[in-house]
């Protein structure tokens, strides 16, 4: 192999390496953008879930109050809810947020 061929070969190798680095860099940027998108979707889903949970907890509080107003004893409510009494319900409500 003469010097000219060696120089051409080295130039080709450098060019291939440069293009490979550029592709890898672009791929990393794409992955980072996808990660940011997924994080935003996760944040939105979490906020929606928290909102729905708040609504359910509020509805449950109102339903319990209505049951109390209609004279349903706490023991019947606890039994119907599978043993979830007011204290554990309130603790869950407080810890949910």
TrEMBL record:
Q: What is the superkingdom listed in this entry's lineage? A: Eukaryota
Q: Where is this region: Disordered?
A: 1-23
Gene Ontology molecular function, alphabetical: DNA-binding transcription factor activity
Xref: Gene3D superfamilies = 1.20.5.170
InterPro entries given for it? bZIP_sf (IPR046347)
Name of the protein: BZIP domain-containing protein
């Amino acid at each position: 192999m003469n010097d000219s061929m060696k120089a051409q070969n080295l130039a080709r190798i450098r060019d291939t390496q440069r293009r490979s680095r550029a592709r890898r860099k672009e791929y990393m940027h794409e992955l980072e953008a996808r990660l940011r998108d997924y994080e935003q979707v996760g944040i939105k889903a979490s906020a929606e879930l928290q909102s729905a949970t708040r609504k359910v907890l509020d509805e449950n509080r109102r339903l319990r109050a209505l049951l109390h107003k209609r004279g349903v004893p706490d023991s019947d409510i606890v039994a119907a809810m599978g043993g979830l009494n007011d204290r554990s319900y309130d603790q869950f409500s407080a810890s949910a947020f």
